[in-house]
Design the sequence.
């Protein structure tokens, strides 16, 4: 009976880890949760990894000038010479979390990674408000940011990855 | 004769090259300074050097320790058009250079001539001893590997082409390099990503991996887990030596057959997820507007181009010429390359230089007699999945636009172009881009 229980547990576990195999080569170090947190700043569409913090469009407008965003994007973000931030571009992105992630990892140029979470929330709010996606008074934080409805979201088609197998013909086959 | 417009473009390219050299890291700067600033790599004016020319650079011992090509060989990578477009220039920092396909005589792209698209970032100067790759996310055991550890794992070498999705945005450029130069084919060596993922133990509900680079913007790109478990490489070797800095040193992903944006350079992290992470390079760019909506594209279609004779070259005599070209497909092996000598009315099967490897540049040749007539040459590739390379008109129709819109650069949102390229030969032997 004990063995039967154990067998059930083993079968259940192996069903959960379909791809998993035991470590075979004993190379590489196991990373601690703390090491992973320090190493990884990426934020997915659900916003699970978003840090604590908050910001509004009004705060973001100040940060936009204070952190030198204006040098490349222009006084209000639409003058350039760097990519225009109003009226095209990011308004078409599927998830507001992507804007947070990109500002956080890639801005400002030459000082990437120097913004605080509050500054990133504020800049995201500023850009979303300038693009008329959120209201001037909206506060963005861990909870509200993932809920922002981006206007183009519905146009994104989920890639059929479950069906993808080596040798699968392209979905974009053009018949001559 | 050079037109005013062409001359201006050349000026901008050279200015951009100087700009990059001035702002680049020392190693890159030294490399750039090796490149001659004058003289076109696009053929036509190969000046004979005098026997009394200056001695080759560097001392003879150094040249033996690490070889350099003959001082008579001048082929260089050209600056990509988007690097001289002020709209896309990242303040002089964009390093986009093109493979001079018209000058390459084999199917492997020489490493120093491989195209580079750096998305505005100067290649980081990474100490291989300090570099780490973390595999984490939806795994049982998040793992950190040193480069040395990765090199001890079972290794795989494969000859694979990598081609930018944006090959080719500038249909009307005169030369092969400027229209098709964002592709290259190398032998990549590394450890299969599936080995690392199995070591970490991927959870059953995982569906994607997100690769992340170490450059200042730490670019990310999502790839289906099914592809990652199949044939994706974590490469440290390129054509038998370490991957070059501008190509991803010390580690890069190589995702065979997919748009090269998936092959993340300067790789620092693989995050296993249950969904695409919708980073800048998939939500802001690279997701084409199909007739149905906004979709991801993965495998590239069959493609080919005639490298000789090609735009900007000149046939110097009537009689025998060998038509040469390259064919490739993200779908697998090239099964057939055909050449048309009459602008696409009839096709002749070309000789493939075997073995035709899957997802690799494959050379083809066809003997030809040119009697001095006006002629339009084209090539067409069929891959092992049976997909056939389309004409520009067919390609444009698929994306809901016209050829004219693509030629004018006003058709936006389309996927990777694999449209057939015509080269016209005039009675005087000059070869021009005959795309319509």
Sequence:
């Amino acid at each position: 009976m004990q063995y039967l229980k154990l067998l059930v547990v083993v079968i259940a576990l192996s069903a959960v880890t379909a791809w998993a195999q035991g470590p075979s080569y004993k190379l590489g170090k196991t990373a601690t949760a703390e090491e992973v947190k320090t190493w990884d700043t990426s934020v997915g569409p659900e916003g699970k990894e978003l840090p604590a913090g908050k910001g509004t469009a009004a705060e973001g407008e100040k940060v936009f000038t204070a952190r030198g965003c204006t040098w490349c994007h222009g006084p209000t973000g639409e003058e350039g010479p760097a990519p225009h931030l109003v009226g095209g571009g990011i308004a078409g992105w599927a998830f507001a979390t992507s804007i947070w992630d990109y500002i956080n990892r890639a801005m400002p140029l030459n000082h990437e990674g120097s913004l605080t979470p509050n500054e990133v929330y504020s800049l995201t709010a500023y850009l979303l408000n300038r693009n008329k996606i959120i209201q001037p008074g909206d506060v963005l934080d861990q909870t509200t940011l993932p809920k922002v409805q981006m206007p183009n979201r519905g146009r994104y088609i989920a890639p059929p990855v479950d069906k993808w197998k080596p040798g699968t013909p392209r979905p974009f086959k053009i018949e001559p | 004769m050079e037109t005013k417009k062409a001359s201006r473009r050349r000026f901008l390219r050279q200015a951009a090259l100087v700009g990059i050299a001035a702002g680049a890291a020392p190693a890159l700067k030294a490399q750039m300074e090796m490149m001659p600033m004058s003289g076109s790599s696009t053929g036509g004016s190969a000046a004979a050097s005098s026997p009394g020319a200056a001695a080759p650079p560097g001392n003879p011992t150094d040249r033996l320790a690490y070889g350099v090509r003959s001082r008579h060989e001048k082929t260089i990578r050209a600056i990509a058009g988007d690097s001289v477009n002020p709209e896309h220039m990242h303040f002089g920092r964009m390093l986009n250079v093109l493979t001079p396909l018209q000058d390459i005589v084999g199917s492997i792209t020489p490493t120093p001539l491989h195209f580079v698209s750096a998305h505005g970032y100067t290649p980081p100067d990474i100490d291989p001893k300090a570099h780490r790759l973390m595999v984490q996310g939806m795994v049982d055991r998040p793992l950190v590997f040193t480069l040395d550890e990765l090199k001890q794992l079972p290794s795989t070498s494969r000859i694979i082409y990598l081609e930018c999705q944006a090959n080719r945005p500038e249909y009307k450029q005169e030369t092969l390099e400027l229209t098709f130069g964002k592709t290259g084919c190398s032998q990549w060596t590394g450890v299969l990503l599936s080995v690392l993922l199995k070591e970490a133990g991927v959870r059953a509900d995982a569906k994607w991996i997100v690769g992340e680079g170490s450059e200042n913007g730490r670019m990310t790109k999502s790839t289906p887990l099914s592809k990652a478990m199949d044939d994706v490489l974590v490469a440290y070797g390129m054509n038998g030596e370490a991957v070059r800095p501008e190509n991803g040193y010390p580690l890069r992903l190589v995702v065979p057959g997919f748009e090269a944006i998936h092959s993340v350079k300067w790789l620092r992290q693989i995050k296993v997820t249950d969904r695409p992470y919708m980073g800048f390079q998939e939500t802001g760019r690279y997701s084409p507007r199909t007739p149905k909506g906004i979709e991801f594209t993965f495998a590239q279609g069959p493609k080919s181009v005639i490298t000789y004779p090609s735009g900007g070259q000149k046939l110097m005599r009537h009689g025998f010429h060998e038509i040469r070209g390259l064919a490739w497909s993200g779908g697998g092996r090239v099964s057939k390359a055909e050449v048309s000598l009459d602008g696409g009315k009839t096709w002749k099967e070309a000789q493939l230089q075997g073995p035709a490897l899957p997802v690799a540049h494959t050379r083809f040749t066809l003997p030809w007699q040119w009697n001095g007539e006006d002629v339009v040459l084209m090539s067409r590739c069929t891959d092992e999945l049976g997909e056939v390379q389309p004409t520009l008109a067919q390609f444009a129709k698929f994306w809901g636009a016209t050829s004219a819109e693509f030629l004018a650069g006003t058709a936006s949102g389309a996927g990777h172009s694999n449209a057939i390229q015509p080269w016209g030969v005039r009675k005087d032997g000059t070869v021009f881009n005959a795309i319509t």
The CA atoms of residues 30 and 111 of chain A lie 31 Å apart. Chain A touches chain B through 63 residues (CB under 8 Å). Strands of chain A lie at 29-30, 54-55, 140-141. Helices of chain A lie at 2-16, 33-39, 57-66, 69-73, 96-106, 117-130.
